Amino acid sequence: MADMKWIEEQEAKIPHGKVRTRFAPSPTGYMHVGNLRTALYTYLIARHFDGTFILRIEDTDQGRLVEDAVDVIYKTMKECGLDHDEGPDVGGPVAPYVQTERKPFYKKYAEWLVERGHAYYCFCEKTESEENAGEFDRADDPCRSLSAEEAAARIAEGKPYVIRQRIPREGTTTFHDESFGDITVENKTLDDQVLIKRDGLPTYNFANVIDDHMMGITHVVRGSEYLSSAPKYNLLYEGFGWEIPAYVHCSPVMRDQHNKMSKRHGDPSYEDLKAQGFLTDAIVNYVTLLGWSPKGEIAEQEIFTRAELIAAFDIAGISKSPAIFDIEKLKYFNSEYIRAMSPESFAAVAEPYIRQSVKNPAYDAAAIAAILQQRTELLTDIPEKVDFFDTLPEYDSELYVHKKSKTDKPGCLDMLKKMLPVFEAIGDWNDENVLKAMTDMAEAEQCKNAKVMWPVRIALAGKAVTPGGAVEIACILGKAESLRRIAAGIELLEKSV
Ligand code: GLU
Fold it and tell me: Which of 46, 61, 247, 248 could form a disulfide with 177 if both were Cys (CB 3.0 to 4.6 A apart)?
């Protein structure tokens, strides 16, 4: 007998009247790009409609549990600014928010569904593979037609059983998805899936419907791999007499035209992208646009603040065609975000990368960050770009030859020899004075500034490409080290001209 008093109490707890969405990850230990996108859309729909955003942990599949995996979910959501209003850590009116803590609920609802005629006790022994394949002939299942008394008698005898969904044999089921429209399937193609297993635990397909209902979810946002289960979900909602939520199934994020992104095949997760030097804000912005496009005046806009995304986000803008993840495009977003940061914020995120190669504390990380900011695509590119500060690399004197600056080795040697005493004479070693020393020299020599600056920069850095020019590098190195490097440049050139 269904526990109607308990069910009524649960039904009374369900919040109504506001949009309620949930992100329902399984703790796998990392956040797929596709999962992150689902989380973002779920969050944005809730925030756009001034609704409630819920985190539910779907851990029924114990085999997939990875230690600390739930922490990865919390950490990612926090970093990405996806603050949930209800969830395991913050509680809420329809707690608990962890599926394994909800175990007792499912059977009670399944028993009620049996009474309503949309599920039945099944005592047949079926192997797991028969079950999963859904290959058995449903019409032959003798338990489907057992009377309630007979089933009760077998249960009383202690016979093990599962509870199956009673799918109508005739007719069709239609469900509506916000992106995919109406989809109709023949009921005969659907199997009487197990709702409650022999051990009394729910199957995922049942738990998920019960949870969404009990939590008052109005919009179910999830990956399109669940599309094929949606008709069965609808029949469950109908069997209970419940309102069906709006479905928003999102097409997969693809690596290329034919393959889904997959961690197993080496595609990056959110954590991997972070480790590769991408900023969270850039990842979030890019991933939001993977499968959603703004309309109207902002159709061409690419960089969005969080507030702009919340205001602009609409379900109609979600595409049903799969999106291709393009790392080059993400790099572009990353450099845009880096450029737009305040110098202080950039210095804070860049410092650990700078210090990977610049160990000398005399070299100011903030000053190095300042020369990097406009030229950095990935944070992980930084150590290699600034390695010359600590140690002047051994370099080829050919670097002094530069067509565009009209420099050759004898000219550079001459210029460095002239600049050395001028630099030595500078009392206050700062940007302004170092620059003036070089521009005054160009004027005196009646040449372009580049003809002075090229050899100085090569002598200071020993590299053709550097973040920052001669002035900035000289100031970061300081007077003594700059003079030493220029003298070393002279020595090198003297040997090779
Ligand atoms: N736990 C499911 C997953 O991680 C989510 C399914 C859903 O959102 O309905 O794929």
Answer: 247
3-state class percentages of the chain: helix first, strand second, coil last, to nearest 5: 55, 10, 35
Distance between CA 110 and CA 151 in Å, rounded?
Answer: 14
CB atoms within 10 A of CB 157: 8
Query: Which tens digit of pLDDT belongs to each residue from 152-172?
Result: 999 999 999 999 999 999 999
Q: Which residue has the tokens 């991997």?
A: 272
Element spanning 182, H or E: strand 181-186
CA dihedral 455, 459, 460, 461 (to 10 degrees): 100
Residues 6+ apart with CB under 8 A from 424: 483
pLDDT digits (tens, 9 = 90+) for 454-471: 999 999 999 999 999 999
Query: Which of 66, 208, 224, 248 has the most ligand 1 atoms within 8 A of CB, as the residue to mutate?
Result: 208
3-state secondary structure at position 344 = helix
Task: Evaluate if residue 136 carries a pLDDT over 60.
Answer: no
263 catalytic? Reply is: yes
Closest atom of ligand 1 to 208 CA is 9
Closest CA to ligand 1's atom 2? 25
Tokens 């920052």 belong to which residue?
Answer: 468
Which member of 126, 263, 329, 418 is catalytic?
Answer: 263
Is residue 497 very low, low, confident or very high in pLDDT (cuts 50, 70, 90)?
confident
Write down the pTM of the prediction: 0.90
- Which atom of ligand 1 is closest in space to residue 204's alpha carbon? 1
User: 272-291 burial, b for 16+ CB within 10 Å, e for fewer?
Assistant: ebbeebbbbbbbbbbbbbbb
Treating both helix axes as pointing N-terminal to C-terminal, what angle do 479-496 and 449-461 enclose, rounded to 10 degrees?
100
Q: Give strand pairing partners of 402.
A: 407
Residue 391 to residue 419: CA distance in whole angstroms: 22
Of ligand 1's atoms, which has the minimum distance to the CA of residue 35?
A: 4
